[in-house]
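Posting this for the archive.
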Amino acid sequence: GRLDRFPARYRGDVLGTHRGHRHRGGLSPIRHDREAAQGHGGLGEILRLRREKARRRACSDRIEFHCLGAQQIGALERGPFDGVFSNFGAINCVSDPAALSARLAGMLTPGAPLVWVVMGRHVPWEWLWYLARGAPRKAFRRLQREGVEWRGMRISYPTPGAMSAWLEPHFEIT
């Protein structure tokens, strides 16, 4: 993977994003934010666990955790950052990835790595899985250009070409 772009003993500021997990009770993304802001349940629990893990590993003085949507990334009054890492399809949930990439470019030190793990559009094993279970609509949902509605948000599944178009004005793609 491209994580080798981050030095093994990294000491810089890395901005990371995370979509979150399914939580008991089927919390909506809006409720996640409210719960996290109150510091309990939903994403608040994820933040608590991450902070505890950082404390146990004696690096909590170098790591900050914030819960905010990608569109709110400009609210961080820190930077520049030495890298960006986004995992678990968080970018798939962003309504304007081109604007996000432009904003991130302005928040990073020159040459800083940006690593996005994105759920793609073409997933043949998923097509076969759902077709075998009689669910053709679900099998091909990722092929819809406008994305799909899921738990109150629009999820898009970009092609490599679309991602390049968002990133190339601001980043070197390797």
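Residues 27 and 42 are 7 Å apart (CA to CA). The two ends are 11 Å apart (CA to CA).
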